Amino acid sequence: MSDEALAVSVVVVTFRPGEALRRFLETARKATSEPYEVLVVDNGPADGASDAVAAEFAEAQVLRPGGNVGYGRGANFGARAAVADWLVVANDDLAWQPGSLDTLLGAVTRWPDAGALGPAILTPDGSLYPSARALPSLGRGIGHAVCGWWWPSNPWTRAYRQERGAPVERSVGWLSGSCLLLRRAAFEAVGGFDPSYFMYFEDLDLCERIGKAGWRNIYVPDAVIAHIGGLSTERHRAAMVREHHRSAYRYLSRRYAGPAWLPLRLALRVGLAGRSLLSRVVHGVGEGARPTRTAAALDDRPGH
User: Fold this and answer.
1) E-strand stretches of the chain
2) pLDDT by residue (tens digit) across 67-102?
3) Which helix (H) or strand (E) holds 72?
4) Which of 73, 157, 261, 297 has CB atoms 3.0–4.6 Å from 256's, for a disulfide?
């Protein structure tokens, strides 16, 4: 098969994947009838585990960036080796529903200015995850951060997560990075994922820059995937909670830059540090190794 015949390049970022990678690759075969390739970016040790799984799938090859470089940087590494005009960037711990990638690709004709498209994401218990959201304003962000975990139906969280009504295909502020279909031209025009984010908020940052560059971020709920979750999220939850809040501050401090916003940035730093500690206490998480990859299942612990 020539490179020109490929409809999509699938970049999956992994770290000690276990059976998750095999499930991802098996379900991907039923997700599209189009020719595709899979680039497995292995952020973990070169222990041969991902190679053994990928060897079972002719469409897959393993790439190694040389260490645990984080989700966005790993995705950029895989994208540079991709050949198709459309890229999927995804976690390994998800399962595609039959035809779901074809459904995403089909939406492209309805949205010729789409830069990123995202599917509906089901959580492990089968409920719909709010993966298509508004860009966070200061008011919505504070209200969601303060009230989201004890008053889930508060108006700030509802406005931010856009959960009202039945899910419909629409243009949104940003989409979960757990699974994104990206127009290669748009992705490259904005420089891909910002490598300064190790994990969390790299998807929000990317979608915001895609929107500012004149493209749209499109939610396609008829395309459905299931986010299963992985062992790495359980083993390193404390580190992931800390990284979540660090990334939140990085994003917000850049949005509110300059001398006039210094008091706000100081308040955000103190507030997010305190919230990170409180979240670890409330959820009973202990210390662990550094975080390994993004996980939408933890997105709202403490309230992304």
Assistant:
1) 8-14, 36-42, 60-63, 86-91, 94-96, 114-122, 128-129, 132-133, 170-172, 174-175, 179-183, 216-227
2) 999 999 999 999 999 999 999 999 999 999 999 999
3) helix 71-81
4) 261
Are β-strands 114-122 and 216-227 bridged in parallel, bridged antiparallel, or unpaired?
parallel
Query: For the chain, which residues make up each domain, given as ranges?
Result: 3-229, 232-298
Query: What CATH architecture is 3-229?
Result: Alpha-Beta Complex (3.90)
Q: Which two tokens stand for residue 62?
A: 């393993």
**86: amino acid identity, one letter:** W
Query: Which amino acid does the sequence have at 8?
Result: V
d(C-alpha 251, C-alpha 69), whole Å: 19
**Amino acid (1-letter code) at residue 61:** Q
Residue in the structure block whose two tokens are 């490259």:
188
The span from the CA of 116 to the CA of 178, in Å, is: 13
Cα radius of gyration (the chain): 18
Residue 268 pLDDT grade (very low, low, confident, very high; cuts 50, 70, 90): low
Residue whose C-alpha is closest to residue 168's, from 202, 132, 140, 115: 132
Cβ count within 10 A of residue 46: 11
Q: Which range is least confidently modeled, 45-49, 50-54, 61-65?
A: 45-49
Entry pTM: 0.80
